Amino acid sequence: MLEFFAKLKLNSIIDKNPTKKTKRFLSWNDISSMAIIIESNKNLNKNNLDEFIEKTGKFVEVFYVETNNKQATFGDWNCFTKKDLTFLKLPKSETILSLKTKQFDLVINTCNDSNLFAAALNNYLTSTFKCGLSNAYNDTDLIISKQESYDLPLYLTDISNYLKMIKY
Protein backbone atom coordinates (compact mmCIF):
# COMPACT_ATOMS: atom_id res chain seq x y z
CA MET A 1 0.00 0.00 0.00
CA LEU A 2 2.83 2.40 0.83
CA GLU A 3 4.48 1.68 -2.50
CA PHE A 4 1.30 2.81 -4.27
CA PHE A 5 1.41 6.17 -2.46
CA ALA A 6 5.16 6.45 -3.06
CA LYS A 7 4.63 5.99 -6.81
CA LEU A 8 1.89 8.63 -6.80
CA LYS A 9 4.17 11.03 -4.94
CA LEU A 10 7.08 10.31 -7.31
CA ASN A 11 4.91 10.87 -10.39
CA SER A 12 3.69 14.13 -8.89
CA ILE A 13 7.27 15.24 -8.22
CA ILE A 14 8.35 14.39 -11.76
CA ASP A 15 5.36 16.17 -13.31
CA LYS A 16 6.15 19.33 -11.32
CA ASN A 17 9.84 19.29 -12.19
CA PRO A 18 10.63 22.59 -13.96
CA THR A 19 13.71 21.07 -15.61
CA LYS A 20 11.66 18.72 -17.80
CA LYS A 21 12.82 19.26 -21.34
CA THR A 22 12.61 18.04 -24.84
CA LYS A 23 14.81 15.08 -25.60
CA ARG A 24 18.30 16.01 -26.69
CA PHE A 25 21.02 13.51 -27.54
CA LEU A 26 24.70 14.04 -26.81
CA SER A 27 27.69 12.40 -28.38
CA TRP A 28 30.24 10.77 -26.07
CA ASN A 29 32.77 13.46 -27.08
CA ASP A 30 30.42 16.23 -25.89
CA ILE A 31 30.15 14.77 -22.39
CA SER A 32 32.57 16.05 -19.77
CA SER A 33 30.71 15.21 -16.56
CA MET A 34 28.40 12.36 -15.70
CA ALA A 35 26.56 10.80 -12.80
CA ILE A 36 25.96 7.09 -12.41
CA ILE A 37 23.14 5.87 -10.16
CA ILE A 38 23.75 2.34 -8.87
CA GLU A 39 21.74 0.22 -6.45
CA SER A 40 23.43 -2.02 -3.91
CA ASN A 41 24.24 -5.36 -5.39
CA LYS A 42 26.04 -8.38 -4.01
CA ASN A 43 27.92 -8.83 -7.29
CA LEU A 44 29.28 -5.27 -7.47
CA ASN A 45 33.01 -5.19 -8.10
CA LYS A 46 34.06 -1.68 -7.12
CA ASN A 47 37.58 -2.10 -8.55
CA ASN A 48 36.21 -2.92 -12.01
CA LEU A 49 33.81 0.01 -11.84
CA ASP A 50 36.54 2.40 -10.69
CA GLU A 51 38.69 1.16 -13.57
CA PHE A 52 35.88 1.90 -16.05
CA ILE A 53 35.41 5.37 -14.57
CA GLU A 54 39.11 6.13 -14.85
CA LYS A 55 39.19 4.97 -18.48
CA THR A 56 36.40 7.38 -19.45
CA GLY A 57 38.60 10.40 -18.77
CA LYS A 58 35.52 12.28 -17.63
CA PHE A 59 34.42 13.69 -14.29
CA VAL A 60 32.17 10.98 -12.83
CA GLU A 61 30.15 11.00 -9.61
CA VAL A 62 28.64 7.76 -8.39
CA PHE A 63 25.36 7.76 -6.46
CA TYR A 64 25.08 4.45 -4.62
CA VAL A 65 21.60 3.53 -3.37
CA GLU A 66 21.86 1.18 -0.41
CA THR A 67 18.71 2.08 1.48
CA ASN A 68 18.68 -1.18 3.42
CA ASN A 69 21.94 -0.27 5.20
CA LYS A 70 22.35 2.00 8.18
CA GLN A 71 25.89 3.01 7.28
CA ALA A 72 27.51 3.96 3.96
CA THR A 73 29.68 1.29 2.36
CA PHE A 74 32.01 3.49 0.31
CA GLY A 75 33.61 6.74 1.36
CA ASP A 76 34.43 8.03 -2.10
CA TRP A 77 30.89 7.65 -3.52
CA ASN A 78 27.66 9.44 -2.67
CA CYS A 79 25.98 6.68 -0.66
CA PHE A 80 22.32 6.86 0.34
CA THR A 81 21.29 4.82 3.37
CA LYS A 82 18.23 4.47 5.61
CA LYS A 83 18.88 7.92 7.09
CA ASP A 84 18.18 9.48 3.68
CA LEU A 85 14.69 7.94 3.36
CA THR A 86 11.31 9.45 4.07
CA PHE A 87 8.35 7.44 5.30
CA LEU A 88 7.48 6.65 1.66
CA LYS A 89 11.08 5.55 0.98
CA LEU A 90 11.80 8.59 -1.19
CA PRO A 91 14.68 11.08 -0.64
CA LYS A 92 14.47 13.46 2.31
CA SER A 93 14.41 17.19 1.65
CA GLU A 94 18.08 17.62 2.73
CA THR A 95 19.08 15.01 0.16
CA ILE A 96 17.00 16.72 -2.52
CA LEU A 97 18.63 20.09 -1.83
CA SER A 98 22.12 18.60 -2.12
CA LEU A 99 21.22 16.99 -5.46
CA LYS A 100 19.70 20.09 -7.02
CA THR A 101 23.02 21.94 -6.80
CA LYS A 102 24.77 19.41 -9.04
CA GLN A 103 24.94 19.77 -12.84
CA PHE A 104 25.96 16.98 -15.24
CA ASP A 105 26.07 16.43 -18.97
CA LEU A 106 24.91 12.82 -18.58
CA VAL A 107 23.07 10.86 -15.89
CA ILE A 108 22.98 7.07 -16.19
CA ASN A 109 20.42 5.30 -14.02
CA THR A 110 21.36 1.61 -13.83
CA CYS A 111 18.59 0.79 -11.34
CA ASN A 112 15.33 -1.01 -12.01
CA ASP A 113 12.01 0.84 -12.14
CA SER A 114 11.02 -0.73 -8.84
CA ASN A 115 13.70 1.34 -7.08
CA LEU A 116 11.70 4.52 -6.47
CA PHE A 117 14.54 6.18 -4.57
CA ALA A 118 16.81 5.85 -7.62
CA ALA A 119 14.04 7.13 -9.91
CA ALA A 120 13.70 10.19 -7.67
CA LEU A 121 17.49 10.72 -7.73
CA ASN A 122 17.38 10.56 -11.52
CA ASN A 123 14.67 13.22 -11.51
CA TYR A 124 16.44 15.58 -9.10
CA LEU A 125 19.87 15.43 -10.78
CA THR A 126 20.11 18.18 -13.39
CA SER A 127 21.58 17.07 -16.68
CA THR A 128 21.43 17.70 -20.40
CA PHE A 129 20.99 14.02 -21.22
CA LYS A 130 19.68 11.04 -19.26
CA CYS A 131 20.08 7.35 -19.96
CA GLY A 132 18.45 4.40 -18.24
CA LEU A 133 16.78 1.01 -18.45
CA SER A 134 13.32 2.31 -19.28
CA ASN A 135 11.22 5.42 -19.57
CA ALA A 136 8.67 4.44 -16.93
CA TYR A 137 8.72 7.92 -15.37
CA ASN A 138 9.16 9.85 -18.63
CA ASP A 139 12.60 11.09 -17.57
CA THR A 140 14.96 9.16 -19.85
CA ASP A 141 16.32 10.31 -23.21
CA LEU A 142 18.04 7.07 -24.21
CA ILE A 143 16.86 3.61 -23.14
CA ILE A 144 19.38 0.77 -23.14
CA SER A 145 18.12 -2.43 -21.59
CA LYS A 146 20.27 -4.93 -19.75
CA GLN A 147 19.99 -8.64 -19.22
CA GLU A 148 18.91 -10.04 -15.86
CA SER A 149 22.44 -11.09 -14.90
CA TYR A 150 24.67 -8.31 -16.13
CA ASP A 151 28.10 -6.94 -15.40
CA LEU A 152 27.87 -3.24 -14.53
CA PRO A 153 31.13 -2.10 -16.19
CA LEU A 154 30.12 -4.00 -19.35
CA TYR A 155 26.69 -2.34 -19.31
CA LEU A 156 28.30 1.08 -18.90
CA THR A 157 30.71 0.27 -21.73
CA ASP A 158 27.72 -0.60 -23.93
CA ILE A 159 26.17 2.78 -23.11
CA SER A 160 29.38 4.61 -23.96
CA ASN A 161 29.61 2.66 -27.24
CA TYR A 162 26.06 3.73 -28.18
CA LEU A 163 26.88 7.32 -27.29
CA LYS A 164 30.03 7.18 -29.45
CA MET A 165 27.80 6.30 -32.43
CA ILE A 166 25.80 9.53 -32.09
CA LYS A 167 27.07 12.05 -34.61
CA TYR A 168 26.11 15.71 -34.98
Largest sheet: 6 strands, parallel
Helix proportion range = 25-40%
First-last Cα distance: 46 Å
Spatial strand sequence of the major β-sheet: 3-2-1-4-5-6
Query: What share of the residues does DSSP label as strand, in percent?
Result: 15-25%
Number of strands: 6
Assembly category: single chain
Rg, Å, rounded: 15 Å
Order of helices and strands: HEHEEHEHEEH
Notes on the protein architecture:
It is a single chain. The protein is of the alpha/beta class and 168 residues long. Helix content is 34%, strand content 20%. It contains 5 helices and 6 strands; from the N terminus they run αβαββαβαββα. It has helices spanning 2-16, 46-56, 93-100, 116-124, 152-165, and strands spanning 33-39, 59-65, 78-80, 103-109, 126-132, 142-143. Strands 3-2-1-4-5-6 form a 6-stranded parallel β-sheet, covered by helices on one side. β1 (33-39), α2 and β2 (59-65) form a beta-alpha-beta unit. α1 packs parallel to α4. The protein is globular and about 45 Å long. It starts with a helix and ends with a helix.
